[in-house]
């Protein structure tokens, strides 16, 4: 009977051992690697790890190698379907090119937020993260 109850702890990670996985961290980074080991706190070891940078349909991978990840930093973890992975229409580009595109996108977003904040303040609204916004 107990065997029919799905794991709800780090024991559920046993099915991912020795499989290629995608990990999304709290800081937004996306890591791809082979899931090798884990412990009771859901800390785990990735081998042949790369950080995937992407912008629209362009991507670049930065080699990391072996990586120990603390479980509390993981937002999502999932197995990569090796057959479906080859069918995704992504275009590899040099990492410098993708980093430049990401930096330009972040600058544009910061400018847009600054304009939005000025307009909201002019109309009497409190800008995010200031006094009166913590309820």
UniProtKB/TrEMBL annotation:
Residues 8-83 form the Sm domain. Keywords: Cytoplasm, mRNA processing, Ribonucleoprotein, RNA-binding. GO terms for molecular function: mRNA binding. One of its GO terms (cellular component) is P-body. One of its GO terms (biological process) is deadenylation-dependent decapping of nuclear-transcribed mRNA. PROSITE patterns: SM. It is found in: Cytoplasm; Cytoplasm, P-body. Belongs to the snRNP Sm proteins family. Component of the cytoplasmic LSM1-LSM7 complex which is involved in mRNA degradation. This is U6 snRNA-associated Sm-like protein LSm1. It comes from Kockovaella imperatae. The gene is LSM1.
């Amino acid at each position: 009977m107990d065997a029919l109850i799905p794991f709800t702890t780090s024991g559920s990670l046993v099915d991912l051992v020795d499989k290629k996985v995608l990990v999304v961290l709290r800081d937004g980074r996306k890591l791809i690697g082979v899931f090798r080991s884990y412990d009771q706190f859901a800390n785990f070891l990735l081998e042949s790890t790369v950080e995937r940078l992407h912008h629209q349909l362009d991507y670049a991978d930065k080699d990391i190698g072996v990586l120990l990840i603390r479980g509390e930093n993981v937002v999502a973890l999932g197995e990569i379907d090796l057959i479906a992975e080859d069918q995704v229409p992504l275009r590899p580009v040099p990492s410098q090119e993708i980093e430049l595109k990401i930096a330009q996108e972040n600058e544009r977003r910061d400018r847009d937020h600054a304009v939005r904040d000025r307009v909201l303040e002019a109309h009497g609204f409190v800008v995010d993260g200031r006094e009166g916004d913590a309820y």
